[in-house]
Design goal:
This protein is an alpha/beta fold. The chain is built from 20 helices and 15 strands. The protein is 45% helix and 15% strand.
Protein backbone atom coordinates (compact mmCIF):
# COMPACT_ATOMS: atom_id res chain seq x y z
CA UNK A 1 0.00 0.00 0.00
CA UNK A 2 1.10 3.59 -0.66
CA UNK A 3 0.53 6.51 1.72
CA UNK A 4 -0.50 8.63 -1.23
CA UNK A 5 -1.69 11.63 0.81
CA UNK A 6 1.65 11.85 2.60
CA UNK A 7 3.57 11.60 -0.67
CA UNK A 8 1.46 14.34 -2.27
CA UNK A 9 1.83 16.58 0.79
CA UNK A 10 5.62 16.22 0.59
CA UNK A 11 5.66 17.11 -3.11
CA UNK A 12 3.51 20.27 -3.47
CA UNK A 13 5.17 21.12 -6.83
CA UNK A 14 3.16 18.27 -8.40
CA UNK A 15 0.06 20.41 -7.82
CA UNK A 16 1.34 23.98 -7.83
CA UNK A 17 4.35 23.80 -10.15
CA UNK A 18 6.82 26.68 -9.77
CA UNK A 19 4.40 28.39 -7.37
CA UNK A 20 4.78 25.63 -4.77
CA UNK A 21 6.93 27.57 -2.29
CA UNK A 22 4.10 28.96 -0.08
CA UNK A 23 2.74 25.42 0.36
CA UNK A 24 6.04 23.80 1.30
CA UNK A 25 6.85 22.89 4.90
CA UNK A 26 10.42 24.19 4.95
CA UNK A 27 11.33 26.66 2.20
CA UNK A 28 9.03 29.56 3.21
CA UNK A 29 10.51 29.75 6.71
CA UNK A 30 14.06 29.79 5.34
CA UNK A 31 13.21 32.29 2.62
CA UNK A 32 11.52 34.59 5.14
CA UNK A 33 14.58 34.66 7.39
CA UNK A 34 16.68 37.79 7.59
CA UNK A 35 19.36 36.03 5.55
CA UNK A 36 18.92 33.05 3.25
CA UNK A 37 22.31 31.38 3.35
CA UNK A 38 23.51 30.03 0.03
CA UNK A 39 25.51 26.83 -0.12
CA UNK A 40 27.80 25.51 -2.81
CA UNK A 41 26.07 23.39 -5.44
CA UNK A 42 27.43 20.15 -6.85
CA UNK A 43 26.86 18.55 -10.22
CA UNK A 44 24.99 15.29 -10.61
CA UNK A 45 24.72 12.74 -13.38
CA UNK A 46 22.82 9.53 -14.00
CA UNK A 47 24.26 6.18 -12.93
CA UNK A 48 25.35 7.73 -9.64
CA UNK A 49 24.02 7.92 -6.10
CA UNK A 50 24.90 11.00 -4.06
CA UNK A 51 25.11 11.23 -0.28
CA UNK A 52 25.08 14.48 1.69
CA UNK A 53 26.06 14.15 5.34
CA UNK A 54 25.68 16.67 8.13
CA UNK A 55 24.35 17.20 11.64
CA UNK A 56 20.72 18.08 12.28
CA UNK A 57 19.55 21.73 12.15
CA UNK A 58 22.24 22.58 9.62
CA UNK A 59 19.87 22.99 6.66
CA UNK A 60 20.03 19.76 4.65
CA UNK A 61 16.28 19.76 3.94
CA UNK A 62 16.32 23.44 2.97
CA UNK A 63 19.26 22.70 0.67
CA UNK A 64 17.25 20.00 -1.12
CA UNK A 65 14.10 22.14 -1.38
CA UNK A 66 16.07 25.05 -2.86
CA UNK A 67 17.61 22.59 -5.35
CA UNK A 68 14.10 21.53 -6.37
CA UNK A 69 13.03 25.17 -6.61
CA UNK A 70 15.93 25.95 -8.97
CA UNK A 71 15.20 22.88 -11.12
CA UNK A 72 11.58 23.92 -11.62
CA UNK A 73 12.59 27.55 -12.25
CA UNK A 74 14.85 26.33 -15.07
CA UNK A 75 11.92 24.56 -16.71
CA UNK A 76 12.30 20.99 -15.42
CA UNK A 77 8.97 19.16 -15.21
CA UNK A 78 7.83 19.30 -11.53
CA UNK A 79 6.14 15.89 -11.80
CA UNK A 80 9.53 14.32 -12.56
CA UNK A 81 10.82 15.29 -9.10
CA UNK A 82 10.30 13.17 -5.99
CA UNK A 83 11.09 14.28 -2.46
CA UNK A 84 10.64 11.93 0.49
CA UNK A 85 11.27 12.85 4.10
CA UNK A 86 11.91 9.35 5.36
CA UNK A 87 11.30 10.36 8.97
CA UNK A 88 7.63 9.75 8.08
CA UNK A 89 8.22 6.16 6.91
CA UNK A 90 8.56 3.15 9.13
CA UNK A 91 9.97 0.49 6.83
CA UNK A 92 11.79 -0.32 3.61
CA UNK A 93 8.52 -1.55 2.17
CA UNK A 94 6.86 1.84 2.63
CA UNK A 95 9.88 3.54 1.10
CA UNK A 96 9.93 1.19 -1.89
CA UNK A 97 6.17 1.52 -2.44
CA UNK A 98 6.47 5.31 -2.50
CA UNK A 99 9.35 5.19 -4.99
CA UNK A 100 7.56 2.62 -7.16
CA UNK A 101 4.46 4.84 -7.25
CA UNK A 102 6.61 7.72 -8.51
CA UNK A 103 8.33 5.52 -11.09
CA UNK A 104 5.02 4.04 -12.30
CA UNK A 105 3.62 7.51 -12.94
CA UNK A 106 6.75 8.46 -14.89
CA UNK A 107 7.34 5.38 -17.02
CA UNK A 108 8.15 7.37 -20.16
CA UNK A 109 10.37 9.99 -18.52
CA UNK A 110 14.00 10.00 -19.61
CA UNK A 111 15.26 11.99 -16.63
CA UNK A 112 14.06 11.97 -13.03
CA UNK A 113 15.27 13.50 -9.78
CA UNK A 114 14.80 11.64 -6.49
CA UNK A 115 15.63 13.35 -3.18
CA UNK A 116 15.62 10.95 -0.22
CA UNK A 117 15.97 12.97 2.99
CA UNK A 118 17.21 11.43 6.27
CA UNK A 119 17.56 8.03 4.65
CA UNK A 120 19.31 6.52 7.69
CA UNK A 121 16.02 6.50 9.59
CA UNK A 122 15.05 3.47 7.45
CA UNK A 123 16.53 0.18 8.58
CA UNK A 124 18.74 -1.42 5.89
CA UNK A 125 18.27 1.62 3.63
CA UNK A 126 21.37 0.60 1.71
CA UNK A 127 19.49 -2.44 0.34
CA UNK A 128 16.92 -0.11 -1.23
CA UNK A 129 19.65 1.93 -2.93
CA UNK A 130 21.24 -1.32 -4.08
CA UNK A 131 17.88 -2.33 -5.55
CA UNK A 132 17.53 0.99 -7.38
CA UNK A 133 20.98 0.58 -8.87
CA UNK A 134 20.74 -3.10 -9.74
CA UNK A 135 17.30 -2.68 -11.33
CA UNK A 136 18.69 -0.02 -13.67
CA UNK A 137 16.61 2.88 -12.31
CA UNK A 138 19.71 5.08 -11.92
CA UNK A 139 20.09 5.05 -15.72
CA UNK A 140 17.34 7.63 -15.86
CA UNK A 141 17.15 8.91 -12.29
CA UNK A 142 19.53 11.10 -10.33
CA UNK A 143 19.36 10.05 -6.68
CA UNK A 144 20.42 12.41 -3.89
CA UNK A 145 20.24 11.22 -0.29
CA UNK A 146 20.95 12.88 3.06
CA UNK A 147 21.59 11.64 6.56
CA UNK A 148 22.50 12.96 10.00
CA UNK A 149 23.90 9.72 11.34
CA UNK A 150 27.35 9.62 9.85
CA UNK A 151 28.08 6.26 11.43
CA UNK A 152 25.00 4.67 9.85
CA UNK A 153 25.80 6.25 6.48
CA UNK A 154 29.39 5.10 6.57
CA UNK A 155 28.74 1.51 7.68
CA UNK A 156 25.88 0.92 5.26
CA UNK A 157 27.53 2.92 2.51
CA UNK A 158 30.50 0.58 2.61
CA UNK A 159 28.09 -2.17 1.53
CA UNK A 160 27.45 -0.40 -1.79
CA UNK A 161 30.77 -0.74 -3.67
CA UNK A 162 30.66 -0.15 -7.43
CA UNK A 163 27.15 1.32 -7.34
CA UNK A 164 27.87 4.95 -8.12
CA UNK A 165 28.60 6.12 -4.58
CA UNK A 166 32.36 6.51 -5.03
CA UNK A 167 33.56 10.14 -4.95
CA UNK A 168 29.96 11.30 -4.61
CA UNK A 169 29.82 12.01 -0.88
CA UNK A 170 29.54 15.57 0.44
CA UNK A 171 29.42 17.30 3.80
CA UNK A 172 27.00 20.02 4.86
CA UNK A 173 28.52 21.48 8.00
CA UNK A 174 28.10 24.73 9.93
CA UNK A 175 29.13 27.80 7.94
CA UNK A 176 32.81 28.64 8.04
CA UNK A 177 33.79 32.08 9.30
CA UNK A 178 34.55 33.18 5.73
CA UNK A 179 31.04 32.16 4.63
CA UNK A 180 29.56 33.82 7.69
CA UNK A 181 31.31 37.11 6.89
CA UNK A 182 30.49 37.15 3.17
CA UNK A 183 26.81 36.31 3.69
CA UNK A 184 25.97 38.38 6.77
CA UNK A 185 27.91 41.53 5.96
CA UNK A 186 25.23 43.11 3.75
CA UNK A 187 22.53 42.80 6.40
CA UNK A 188 24.79 43.94 9.24
CA UNK A 189 26.12 46.97 7.36
CA UNK A 190 22.56 48.02 6.52
CA UNK A 191 21.89 48.23 10.27
CA UNK A 192 25.25 49.73 11.30
CA UNK A 193 24.97 52.92 13.35
CA UNK A 194 27.77 54.88 11.67
CA UNK A 195 28.51 55.56 8.03
CA UNK A 196 32.18 54.79 8.68
CA UNK A 197 31.37 51.26 9.85
CA UNK A 198 28.95 50.73 6.96
CA UNK A 199 31.59 51.71 4.44
CA UNK A 200 34.18 49.55 6.18
CA UNK A 201 31.93 46.48 5.99
CA UNK A 202 31.15 47.08 2.31
CA UNK A 203 34.83 47.42 1.46
CA UNK A 204 35.68 44.36 3.55
CA UNK A 205 33.32 42.23 1.48
CA UNK A 206 34.64 43.61 -1.80
CA UNK A 207 38.24 42.93 -0.75
CA UNK A 208 37.54 39.49 0.71
CA UNK A 209 35.77 38.26 -2.42
CA UNK A 210 38.99 38.77 -4.39
CA UNK A 211 41.46 36.92 -2.15
CA UNK A 212 41.88 33.74 -0.13
CA UNK A 213 44.69 31.72 1.41
CA UNK A 214 46.10 28.53 -0.06
CA UNK A 215 47.51 26.44 2.80
CA UNK A 216 50.12 25.02 0.39
CA UNK A 217 51.58 28.48 -0.18
CA UNK A 218 54.73 29.63 1.60
CA UNK A 219 54.37 32.03 4.51
CA UNK A 220 55.56 35.00 2.44
CA UNK A 221 52.60 34.63 0.07
CA UNK A 222 50.22 34.17 3.01
CA UNK A 223 51.64 37.30 4.64
CA UNK A 224 50.89 39.30 1.50
CA UNK A 225 47.29 38.09 1.40
CA UNK A 226 46.77 38.75 5.13
CA UNK A 227 48.00 42.31 4.69
CA UNK A 228 45.32 43.02 2.07
CA UNK A 229 42.63 42.33 4.69
CA UNK A 230 44.37 43.68 7.83
CA UNK A 231 42.92 47.20 7.31
CA UNK A 232 39.51 45.68 8.09
CA UNK A 233 40.54 44.14 11.41
CA UNK A 234 38.04 46.19 13.42
CA UNK A 235 35.17 44.99 11.26
CA UNK A 236 36.36 41.37 11.40
CA UNK A 237 36.70 41.49 15.19
CA UNK A 238 33.08 42.61 15.43
CA UNK A 239 31.93 39.79 13.14
CA UNK A 240 34.09 37.19 14.87
CA UNK A 241 32.55 38.01 18.24
CA UNK A 242 29.12 37.26 16.78
CA UNK A 243 30.45 34.02 15.26
CA UNK A 244 31.80 32.96 18.66
CA UNK A 245 28.21 33.07 19.93
CA UNK A 246 26.22 31.75 16.98
CA UNK A 247 28.69 29.50 15.25
CA UNK A 248 27.74 28.56 11.71
CA UNK A 249 24.10 27.49 12.22
CA UNK A 250 21.89 29.60 9.90
CA UNK A 251 18.83 29.60 12.17
CA UNK A 252 20.92 30.63 15.20
CA UNK A 253 22.60 33.43 13.24
CA UNK A 254 19.26 34.79 12.01
CA UNK A 255 17.72 34.65 15.48
CA UNK A 256 20.73 36.45 16.95
CA UNK A 257 20.72 39.24 14.35
CA UNK A 258 16.97 39.77 14.72
CA UNK A 259 17.28 40.15 18.48
CA UNK A 260 20.50 42.17 18.40
CA UNK A 261 19.17 44.87 16.09
CA UNK A 262 15.88 44.95 18.00
CA UNK A 263 17.81 45.80 21.16
CA UNK A 264 17.03 42.57 23.00
CA UNK A 265 19.11 41.60 26.03
CA UNK A 266 19.17 37.82 25.53
CA UNK A 267 20.55 37.31 22.04
CA UNK A 268 20.57 33.53 21.68
CA UNK A 269 17.37 31.58 21.21
CA UNK A 270 17.04 29.07 24.05
CA UNK A 271 14.71 26.86 22.01
CA UNK A 272 17.31 26.42 19.26
CA UNK A 273 19.89 25.34 21.81
CA UNK A 274 17.42 22.89 23.35
CA UNK A 275 16.53 21.45 19.93
CA UNK A 276 20.19 20.88 19.13
CA UNK A 277 20.78 19.07 22.43
CA UNK A 278 17.67 16.92 21.93
CA UNK A 279 18.88 15.99 18.45
CA UNK A 280 22.36 15.08 19.68
CA UNK A 281 21.07 12.86 22.48
CA UNK A 282 18.23 11.53 20.33
CA UNK A 283 20.67 10.28 17.71
CA UNK A 284 22.68 8.57 20.45
CA UNK A 285 19.56 6.70 21.57
CA UNK A 286 18.58 5.81 17.98
CA UNK A 287 21.98 4.14 17.58
CA UNK A 288 21.27 1.92 20.57
CA UNK A 289 23.47 3.78 23.08
CA UNK A 290 22.64 5.18 26.51
CA UNK A 291 21.92 8.86 27.01
CA UNK A 292 23.47 8.78 30.50
CA UNK A 293 26.87 7.70 29.18
CA UNK A 294 26.71 10.28 26.41
CA UNK A 295 25.98 13.05 28.91
CA UNK A 296 28.84 11.95 31.17
CA UNK A 297 31.31 11.86 28.28
CA UNK A 298 30.22 15.24 26.93
CA UNK A 299 30.50 16.83 30.39
CA UNK A 300 34.04 15.52 30.83
CA UNK A 301 35.01 16.81 27.37
CA UNK A 302 33.72 20.29 28.27
CA UNK A 303 35.50 20.24 31.65
CA UNK A 304 38.77 19.19 29.98
CA UNK A 305 38.32 21.31 26.87
CA UNK A 306 41.51 22.12 25.02
CA UNK A 307 43.68 19.83 27.17
CA UNK A 308 45.11 16.48 26.17
CA UNK A 309 44.25 13.18 27.84
CA UNK A 310 44.02 9.49 27.05
CA UNK A 311 40.82 7.60 26.36
CA UNK A 312 41.70 5.41 29.35
CA UNK A 313 41.76 8.43 31.67
CA UNK A 314 38.46 9.65 30.27
CA UNK A 315 36.93 6.21 30.82
CA UNK A 316 38.16 6.08 34.42
CA UNK A 317 36.68 9.50 35.16
CA UNK A 318 33.27 8.30 33.95
CA UNK A 319 33.63 4.79 35.35
CA UNK A 320 32.88 3.01 32.09
CA UNK A 321 35.10 0.79 29.98
CA UNK A 322 37.76 2.06 27.62
CA UNK A 323 36.05 0.33 24.68
CA UNK A 324 32.67 1.89 25.48
CA UNK A 325 34.23 5.35 25.69
CA UNK A 326 35.80 4.99 22.24
CA UNK A 327 32.50 3.73 20.83
CA UNK A 328 30.61 6.81 22.06
CA UNK A 329 33.32 9.19 20.85
CA UNK A 330 33.24 7.55 17.41
CA UNK A 331 29.46 7.93 17.29
CA UNK A 332 29.59 11.62 18.28
CA UNK A 333 32.36 12.29 15.80
CA UNK A 334 30.49 10.58 12.97
CA UNK A 335 27.43 12.65 13.88
CA UNK A 336 29.45 15.85 13.32
CA UNK A 337 29.43 16.89 16.96
CA UNK A 338 33.07 16.26 17.88
CA UNK A 339 36.49 16.14 16.28
CA UNK A 340 38.97 13.79 17.95
CA UNK A 341 42.50 15.03 17.32
CA UNK A 342 45.24 12.41 17.61
CA UNK A 343 48.87 13.09 18.45
CA UNK A 344 51.39 12.50 15.65
CA UNK A 345 54.63 10.54 15.99
CA UNK A 346 57.17 11.83 13.48
CA UNK A 347 59.54 8.93 14.15
CA UNK A 348 56.94 6.30 13.27
CA UNK A 349 55.31 8.60 10.69
CA UNK A 350 51.90 7.72 12.07
CA UNK A 351 49.47 8.76 14.79
CA UNK A 352 50.06 7.68 18.38
CA UNK A 353 47.17 5.25 18.74
CA UNK A 354 47.83 4.85 22.46
CA UNK A 355 48.88 8.45 22.97
CA UNK A 356 46.87 11.28 24.44
CA UNK A 357 44.12 12.95 22.43
CA UNK A 358 42.39 16.31 22.19
CA UNK A 359 38.64 16.52 21.62
CA UNK A 360 36.96 19.60 20.17
CA UNK A 361 33.39 20.46 19.24
CA UNK A 362 32.91 21.12 15.55
CA UNK A 363 31.15 24.45 16.16
CA UNK A 364 31.11 26.98 19.04
CA UNK A 365 27.31 26.91 19.28
CA UNK A 366 27.39 23.13 19.78
CA UNK A 367 29.80 23.70 22.66
CA UNK A 368 27.63 26.39 24.28
CA UNK A 369 24.33 24.53 23.79
CA UNK A 370 25.69 21.34 25.37
CA UNK A 371 27.39 23.20 28.23
CA UNK A 372 24.09 24.96 28.89
CA UNK A 373 22.19 21.68 29.02
CA UNK A 374 24.76 19.81 31.12
CA UNK A 375 25.25 22.65 33.62
CA UNK A 376 21.61 23.72 33.84
CA UNK A 377 22.47 27.35 33.04
CA UNK A 378 20.84 29.52 30.38
CA UNK A 379 22.73 29.41 27.09
CA UNK A 380 23.09 33.22 27.11
CA UNK A 381 24.79 33.06 30.54
CA UNK A 382 27.11 30.33 29.28
CA UNK A 383 28.13 32.40 26.25
CA UNK A 384 28.69 35.52 28.37
CA UNK A 385 30.87 33.58 30.79
CA UNK A 386 32.97 32.07 27.98
CA UNK A 387 33.47 35.41 26.23
CA UNK A 388 34.60 37.10 29.44
CA UNK A 389 36.95 34.33 30.60
CA UNK A 390 40.21 34.59 28.64
CA UNK A 391 41.21 30.96 29.15
CA UNK A 392 37.81 29.54 28.13
CA UNK A 393 37.65 31.83 25.11
CA UNK A 394 41.14 30.82 24.02
CA UNK A 395 40.18 27.12 24.06
CA UNK A 396 36.97 27.74 22.09
CA UNK A 397 38.94 29.66 19.46
CA UNK A 398 41.42 26.79 19.33
CA UNK A 399 38.53 24.45 18.54
CA UNK A 400 37.26 26.78 15.80
CA UNK A 401 40.71 26.78 14.18
CA UNK A 402 40.80 22.97 14.29
CA UNK A 403 37.39 22.67 12.58
CA UNK A 404 38.39 25.19 9.90
CA UNK A 405 41.62 23.36 9.08
CA UNK A 406 39.54 20.20 8.68
CA UNK A 407 37.00 22.01 6.45
CA UNK A 408 39.83 23.26 4.28
CA UNK A 409 41.25 19.85 3.41
CA UNK A 410 38.84 16.98 4.03
CA UNK A 411 37.30 14.72 1.41
CA UNK A 412 34.79 12.06 2.56
CA UNK A 413 36.23 8.55 2.85
CA UNK A 414 39.50 9.26 1.01
CA UNK A 415 40.87 12.15 3.08
CA UNK A 416 39.33 12.08 6.53
CA UNK A 417 40.58 14.34 9.32
CA UNK A 418 42.76 11.77 11.06
CA UNK A 419 44.75 11.24 7.84
CA UNK A 420 46.04 14.83 7.61
CA UNK A 421 45.36 16.78 10.83
CA UNK A 422 46.85 16.08 14.27
CA UNK A 423 48.54 17.80 17.18
CA UNK A 424 52.02 17.19 18.57
CA UNK A 425 53.62 16.96 21.99
CA UNK A 426 57.17 16.03 22.96
CA UNK A 427 58.63 14.23 25.96
CA UNK A 428 58.79 17.51 27.87
CA UNK A 429 55.07 18.11 27.34
CA UNK A 430 55.49 20.99 24.89
CA UNK A 431 52.79 21.14 22.21
CA UNK A 432 51.90 22.27 18.74
CA UNK A 433 48.13 22.78 18.60
CA UNK A 434 47.67 21.55 15.03
CA UNK A 435 49.92 19.73 12.59
CA UNK A 436 48.64 19.76 9.03
CA UNK A 437 50.10 17.48 6.36
CA UNK A 438 49.94 18.84 2.84
CA UNK A 439 51.36 16.37 0.33
CA UNK A 440 54.77 15.53 1.85
CA UNK A 441 55.25 18.67 3.94
CA UNK A 442 53.96 19.67 7.37
CA UNK A 443 52.57 22.96 8.63
CA UNK A 444 52.43 23.73 12.32
CA UNK A 445 49.50 25.92 13.43
CA UNK A 446 49.53 27.42 16.91
CA UNK A 447 46.55 29.33 18.31
CA UNK A 448 47.52 32.06 20.79
CA UNK A 449 44.36 34.11 21.30
CA UNK A 450 45.97 36.67 23.58
CA UNK A 451 47.98 39.86 23.48
CA UNK A 452 51.76 39.95 23.00
CA UNK A 453 52.45 36.97 20.74
CA UNK A 454 56.03 36.45 19.54
CA UNK A 455 57.87 34.21 17.08
CA UNK A 456 59.27 32.28 20.06
CA UNK A 457 55.77 30.89 20.69
CA UNK A 458 56.35 28.39 17.86
CA UNK A 459 57.77 25.06 19.03
CA UNK A 460 60.39 24.43 16.33
CA UNK A 461 61.03 20.81 15.31
CA UNK A 462 63.02 19.65 12.23
CA UNK A 463 60.10 17.93 10.49
CA UNK A 464 57.97 21.09 10.27
CA UNK A 465 59.18 23.70 7.80
CA UNK A 466 56.37 26.28 8.04
CA UNK A 467 54.58 27.70 11.07
CA UNK A 468 51.47 29.83 11.48
CA UNK A 469 50.76 31.50 14.82
CA UNK A 470 47.19 32.79 15.08
CA UNK A 471 47.07 35.72 17.46
CA UNK A 472 44.53 38.11 18.89
CA UNK A 473 46.17 41.27 17.57
CA UNK A 474 49.73 40.71 16.36
CA UNK A 475 50.89 40.27 12.78
CA UNK A 476 54.40 39.57 11.50
CA UNK A 477 56.72 37.47 9.35
CA UNK A 478 60.08 35.95 10.19
CA UNK A 479 61.73 33.33 7.95
CA UNK A 480 59.34 30.37 8.09
CA UNK A 481 56.88 31.77 10.68
CA UNK A 482 53.75 33.82 9.99
CA UNK A 483 51.88 35.59 12.77
CA UNK A 484 48.34 36.68 11.86
CA UNK A 485 45.18 37.64 13.77
CA UNK A 486 42.94 34.59 13.95
CA UNK A 487 39.79 36.25 12.60
CA UNK A 488 41.73 37.70 9.65
CA UNK A 489 43.28 34.35 8.79
CA UNK A 490 40.02 32.39 9.09
CA UNK A 491 38.19 34.93 6.92
CA UNK A 492 40.62 34.00 4.13
CA UNK A 493 40.33 30.23 4.48
CA UNK A 494 38.17 28.42 1.92
CA UNK A 495 36.51 25.03 2.31
CA UNK A 496 37.37 21.89 0.36
CA UNK A 497 35.28 21.14 -2.74
CA UNK A 498 33.39 18.36 -0.90
CA UNK A 499 32.19 20.73 1.81
CA UNK A 500 29.08 22.45 0.52
Amino acid sequence: MVKISEIINQNPWWKYGKEFTPYDRHLPKAKESLIFFDRREFRTSKENIYVMRGCRQIGKTTYLKEWINKLISKGFNPKRILYLSLDFFTSRREMRNAINYFLDTNREAEELHMFLDEITTIKDWNLELKYLWDSGITRRAKIITTGSSGMALRKKGELLPGRGLERNEYYLKPLSFREFVLQTVNYIQSHAKTREFQKGLRRLKAALEKVSIDMKSDVNEMYGVVNTIIPFKKELEYLFRIYLMTGGFPAVINAYLKKAFAGKRELLDYSLAETLVRNVLGDVIKQGRQETFARQILKEIIDKYGTRYSFSKLAREIEITHVTTIDYLDLLEESFILTVLHAYDFNKKDIKFKGEKKVYFQDPFIFCALESSLSGRDVNDVVTKNLEDEESLSKIVEGIVCSHLALNQEVPTMREVRTFLWFYYDSRGREIDSVLRLNKSFVGVETKYRSNVSFRDALKIPQIKRYIILSKEDVGLEKDILIAPVETFLSLLNKSSNNL
